[in-house]
Amino acid sequence: MSSKEVRFINRIKEINALRDYCSNQRYTPIYIYGPEGCGKTRLLKEFTKEFDKSFGRDAIAIYIDAMENRDVKKALLSSSEINKIVNIFKVGLEASSELVNMGVPIGQALSRSISLIIDKIAEKLPEKSLKDKYILIAIDDIVRAIGLNKIEWYVKWLFELMNKLKEEYEPRAINFIATTSEGMSRRLVARHRHAHIKLLWNLDKKAFEELFYELNPPNVEFEDIWLLFGGNPGKLIELAYDFKWNIDIMLKTYEVKVREVVKRIVKEGLTKELELFTEDIATAEKILDKKMSALENILEEANLILYKHWILLTNETFNKPQPDINIGIDYAWQVPMYRSLVMRTLKELKPTT
User: Fold this and answer.
1) pLDDT range class, residue 185, cuts 50, 70, 90
2) How far is CA 244 from the centre of its chain?
3) What mean pLDDT value characterizes the chain?
4) How far is Cα 267 from Cα 176, in angstroms, rounded to an integer?
5) HEC per residue, 74-129
6) 109-113: long-range contacts, CB 8 A cutoff, minimum separation 24
7) How far apart are CA 22 and CA 176, in angstroms?
8) pLDDT in tens, 4-49
9) Distance between CA 225 and CA 107 in Å, rounded?
C-alpha cells in the first residue's frame, strides 16, 4: 500500500461544516489553522473533488497547493464535473505564465493568479457565465509559500478579490478558504477584519485508531502511538511509510529539530519556564509574565506548540485540557512527541549547579 491509498477517515463533521460554509455567499475568506499533519490538505482535496455532488453539476471548486514548485498537475485539483469541460491544468498554466516566467514557483504563481483562472474558466464554459453558480477556491499552505512577511498583504488581497469577483460574475456564492500550519501566522491573520480563523485539530482517538489499523501496524501498541502523536494522522503515516514503524529512528530524527530550539531557550535563560511548560502546560500558560510569554513565542515560532483557543471548523469550542496528550487551555504541543523530546534534550543540556 502506498501513502496515496490511505483511506480518508472520519472527517464527516468537517465536510458538513465546509458544505454549510459554501452554501451561502460569505463576506470574508476563512483561514483553516491547525497542527502540521492534522489533515487540512486531505480535507480540502476531498471536499474539492466532491464539490459538485453538494452544489450541482455546474458548481466549480479549485484547489491550489501553494507549496508546489514545478508540476501544475500536483498544484491544481478541480471538482470532477468541471474537469470534463475545462482543462484545468492548461487554464492554470495560461493564467500563471507571466509569474512563472519571472521565476515564481507554480504554486505561488497560481495562488496569485486566481482572478485570471476564474476569467479563463468563464470563457471556456458553454454559457460563458458564472452567474448563479457555486464557486470555491481553496489555497493550501499559503503562509509557507509566500512567507510571514507577505501574509497580511495576501489576507487583504484575497478579501478584496473575493468581493470583486462576486460583483463581476454574480455567482450564487463564491468563497475562498486558505490554510496555514505556521503558528505565528495566526496573529497576523487575526489582527485584520479581512479573514476569520477556524481551527482544525488532529483526529479523535476512535478515528485515529481506525487509521492506525488501516496502516497494518506490526507489533506496535496503539496506546503507545496515541500518546506519541495525539491523533495526528500525518505523523502516523510518516511513521508507517518513512520510518517503517521504527519509532526509535523517528525520535532520533526529530530530536535534531528539537535540540536547536532547546539550546536557544537555555541560552536565553528560560530553562525554569520550559521545565514548567513540559511538566504541566495548563498550569504554565496561566503564568502571564514576560519570560513565559517569550518561551511560548519561541516554541510557537518553531512549530512545536500551537495556540488552540479558537473556534473549530465545526463551530465547536476546543478549550478543554487533555493532559494525557499534552493539550492545555490555550496552547498544545502539536504532537506529544515534541514535548517528550524537549524534556529529554533539556535534561541533557540543563546547566549543572
Assistant:
1) confident
2) 25
3) 92
4) 43
5) HHEEECHHHHHHCCHHHHHHHHHHHHHHCCCCHHHHHHCCHHHHHHHHHHHCCCCC
6) 110/64, 110/66, 110/72, 110/75, 110/76, 111/64, 111/66, 111/139, 111/142, 111/145, 111/146
7) 9
8) 568 898 899 999 999 999 999 999 999 999 999 999 999 999 999 9
9) 34
Among 141, 160, 195, 176, smallest CA distance to 48 is for 176
Q: What is the dihedral of CA 18, 23, 29, 32, to 10 degrees?
A: 0
Cβ neighbours of residue 167 closer than 8 Å, sequence gap 6 or more = none
Whether 140 contacts 101, CB under 8 Å: no
Supply the pLDDT for residue 208: 97
CATH 3.20.14: does it fit domain 3-199? no
Q: Which three cell numbers stand for residue 350?
A: 540543563
Can you give the pTM of this predicted structure?
Answer: 0.92
Q: Are 15 and 39 in contact (CB under 8 A)?
A: no
- Condensed to tens digits (0 to 9), the pLDDT of residues 195-219 reads 899 999 999 999 999 999 999 999 8
Compute how many other C-beta atoms are within 10 angstroms of the C-beta atom of residue 70: 10
Residue type at 340 in one-letter notation: S
Residue ranges of the domains in the chain?
3-199, 205-309+316-349
C-alpha cell at 150: 507577505
Confidence of residue 187 (pLDDT cuts 50, 70, 90): confident
pLDDT tens digits, one per residue of 311-351: 999 999 887 889 999 999 999 999 999 999 999 999 988 76
Query: C-alpha cell of 283?
Result: 498550569
